[in-house]
Design goal:
The protein has a 7-stranded mixed β-sheet with strand order 4-12-11-10-7-5-6, sandwiched between helices. Strands 1-2-3-15 form a 4-stranded mixed β-sheet. 37% of the residues lie in helices and 19% in strands. The chain starts with 15 loop residues before the first strand and ends with a helix. The chain is built from 12 helices and 17 strands. The chain folds into 2 domains: 129 residues, Aspartate Aminotransferase, domain 1; 241 residues, Type I PLP-dependent aspartate aminotransferase-like (Major domain) (Aspartate Aminotransferase, domain 2), CATH 3.40.640. The protein is globular and about 65 Å long. The chain is an alpha/beta fold and 390 residues long. Helix 2 packs antiparallel against helix 9 and helix 10 packs parallel to helix 12. The structure holds pyridoxal-5'-phosphate (PLP). The site of pyridoxal-5'-phosphate has 15 residues, from helix 4.
Length: 390
């Protein structure tokens, strides 16, 4: 008999009833150290007092009004995002996949509004942009995601990772946009080298194609900069953000330059919930905290601390781990065995981690985790690896 919850997830036999900071608690009082943060969502940990306050204050006044009206909380969050990024304008969604939908639509509309037939969007192997039909059509090579869900939307070309010749051959005067994660998350914490992001920018500038960065996982302070692309010194035309932006409240956004958004006039796109007062009140508080340079300095300090500990862990378990990769607090341990073995062994140590493709174990802790908790997490990973090796 099918479970009452559609069985699309292989769930661990764990249920949490309370969270505080980087710790989660089960009904019978077992405490787990959370190095997954809801897959990079709980950017400020669980039940962050500032977010609880922002949420409850807004909840007592106004939860939802339609986008038919002015929404000051939405305006404030959009202003903050524009002030701290390349973007001139923002549209709010409830998730990353909806942000992908608008990114695709906006890029095509840009060209249509100019009267040009440019609909092709270039993506890359290992990419993940969400689970809507549009987002899975963008990655036709991912059999797990697309098989049985056809027909896929036309107009996407997925290229091998790191193949510059294929890229130069594929981008032409039919290319609407190039869509890429500056650091692949689900694909196994694979950063795009800075010079390649620069090369993509140049290629887009010379062909007119729009550059879309998917920062759903790597954005919002995760890498120690507000947005990951800042490390490379290049900017996109359109950017998708979600996960960390709501700190656990479902929220996403599309950021764009005035030029890239020029096709999106009144009536061309919409969302019932996107940008509602409750979500944006929380998002504005997250943004206020995470965009503070002193906060980002702390993220970088913690990232350096964790990375060094992880290098030590890899050195002491050469049969289990191959190396550390990633940027900031978006780190991956390349494993010599299925990362799910390590995730399971870590559960035995009351430690939560997340698997990814390419045999990588992901560590995506809250950005405000303490160094003591980071040390404890590495000790528990050490115990998990030792247990697997025995
Ligand atoms: C999680 C993720 C998405 C999809 O976001 P949802 O909120 O699950 O729809 C898209 N892109 C990237 C890079 C992601 O990590």
């Amino acid at each position: 008999m099918i479970p009452s919850v559609l069985p699309t997830y292989n769930r661990a036999p764990l249920a949490f009833v309370k969270g505080a900071g980087s710790w989660l608690e089960t009904a019978d009082g077992r405490r787990y150290l959370d190095m997954g943060a809801g897959i990079a969502v709980n950017a400020l940990g669980h039940a962050a007092p500032e977010l609880v306050a922002a949420l409850t204050e807004q909840a007592q006044n106004l939860w939802h009004v339609s986008n038919l009206y002015q929404i000051p909380q939405q305006q404030a969050l959009a202003d903050a995002l524009v002030e701290h990024s390349f973007a001139d304008t923002v549209f709010f969604t409830n998730s990353g996949t909806e942000a992908a939908e608008l990114a695709i639509k906006m890029a095509r509309k840009y060209w249509a509004a100019k009267g040009e037939d440019r609909v092709e969007i270039i993506t890359f192997d290992g990419a993940f942009h969400g689970r809507s039909t549009g987002a899975i059509s963008a990655v036709p090579h991912s059999e797990k995601m697309v098989k049985g869900f056809g027909p896929m939307l036309p107009g996407f070309t997925q290229l091998p990772w790191g193949d510059h010749d294929a890229l130069n051959a594929a981008v032409n005067d039919k290319t609407a946009a190039i869509l890429i994660e500056p650091i692949q998350g689900e694909g196994g914490i694979r950063p795009v080298p800075d010079q390649c992001l620069k090369g993509l920018r140049d290629l887009c500038d010379s062909t007119g194609a729009l550059l879309i960065f998917d920062e759903v996982q790597c954005g919002m302070g995760r890498t120690g900069r507000l947005f990951a692309h800042e490390w490379a010194g290049v900017t996109p035309d359109i950017m998708m953000v979600a996960k960390g932006i709501g700190g656990g409240f479902p929220l996403g956004a599309i950021l764009a330059t005035e030029n890239a958004a020029s096709g999106m006039t009144a009536g061309t796109h919409g969302s019932t919930y996107g940008g509602n007062p409750l979500g944006c009140a929380v998002g504005a508080k997250v943004m206020e905290i995470v965009s503070d340079p002193a906060f980002l300095d702390q993220v970088n300090a913690k990232a350096g601390f964790l990375r060094q500990k992880l290098e030590g862990l890899v050195a002491s378990h050469p049969d289990t781990f191959e190396g550390v990769r990633g940027v900031g607090l978006m780190l991956g341990l390349k494993c010599k065995r299925a990362p799910t073995d390590l995730v399971d062994a870590a559960y035995q140590q009351n430690l939560l981690t997340v698997p990814a493709a390419d045999n990588v174990l992901r560590l995506l802790p809250a950005l405000n985790i303490s160094e003591a908790d980071l040390s404890e997490a590495v000790n528990r990973l050490d115990a998990a690896a030792t247990q697997l090796e025995s």
